[in-house]
Amino acid sequence: MKKMLILAAFLFAATACVPFAGLYLRAQRRLPMQEAVLSEDATEIALDEKVNATAAEPTEVTNGAQQEEILVCMADSGVVEEMELIEYTIGVVAAEMPALYEAEALKAQAAASMNLARRAIAEGTSERFNGGHISSSSSVSQAYLTHEQMRYKWGDDYEVYYNKIKNAVSAVAPYMIMYEDELCMTVFHAMSAGRTENSENVWVSALPYLTAADSSFDSSADSFTVSVRIEADAFAKGLEVYGFEPTQNARHWLGESVYSDSGTLLSLQVGEITVSGQQVRSAFGLRSAAVSVVYEDGEFVLTTKGYGHGVGMSQYGAQQLALQGKTWQEIIMHYYNGVSVVPKTQMPA
Question: Which of 64, 100, 182, 329 has a CA positioned 20 to 30 A from the CA of residue 222?
């Protein structure tokens, strides 16, 4: 039995599908909740490169994968809809990755998203999802767009982008991403801090395939580094939930900080308490936990690198690898250490 991830943060906002989603992974194939899946607005990352927006006609799936079905709890209504796995994954990729990305990057995203969906199916339905396998809410699971939402997002380019994504999903549907005899927890994020993170530095348990990988090209992304300035009173207020009580001049609040090799803030002394980068990120709505904190001119300057939790596949990195000519399988094996891409016929019972 492999160790499973337990998210270290609590879910602050409830959704229609999840009245209260405790983030404990209760079974071997529990789909990771909240940040474990989210790309966190990868679609906002601008590309410097111009990519071909044309797409071929959609390919047909003849391997039987289209017969797989998943029960999706719709976030806006709480209603559970039965969908073909192919169609569900198209909606996820449309929400999670820019359609302008290279085909091989879209395939890598599709493979990762479909793997997570298959994990959810294997685990079974959940009361948290009103009897569904998974939620369409980006706050607890993978984001998802309906056809109507895709049409609104893409306008006149709907047919082109839909077919492009459908081709990507159809190409990877016959395959699974495995580590030994388990379907992998193929989590992803928008862009790393230059190197992806070990799972135990973000959540609780270490998974052997969720280890740090080079993603240095992420530093070329727009808004790779973002700084925010927070007044001392607001900084103290944000850390109250962790027990911070200001007792002296703000310039003396900050103490020792410890970082992982990938740049995640592991601990920061603030007055009499110690907080993690994940807690700092949550307190102030930051883009990542790869954050530096300094006191300057009566304010605290918080500077982040990357966007997202940093574990697993960097979506921006996947695009850069695709532009270098890497296949989707090579992208997957770059970001998930020691995994195998195998035909779905080898799926364990």
Answer: 329
Retrieve residue 182's tokens.
Answer: 């388990």
Does residue 215 register a pLDDT over 50?
yes
Going by their DSSP bridges, the two strands 225-231 and 299-305 should be labelled as antiparallel
Instruction: Read off the pLDDT of residues 155-198 as tens digits, 9 standing for 90 and up.
Output: 999 999 999 999 999 999 999 999 999 999 999 999 999 999 99
List the end-to-end C-alpha distance of the chain, in Å, as a whole number: 15
Number of folded domains that form the chain: 2
Residue 128 placed within a domain: yes
Residues 136-165 have pLDDT tens digits of 988 888 999 999 999 999 999 999 999 999
Residue 264's domain comprises 225-305
Q: Is residue 246 part of a domain?
A: yes
Integer angstrom CA distances of residue 192 from 64, 241, 291? 36, 27, 12
- Residue 108 C-alpha from the chain's centroid: 13
pTM of structure: 0.82
d(CA 309, CA 201): 10
Q: Are 281 and 169 in contact (CB under 8 A)?
A: no
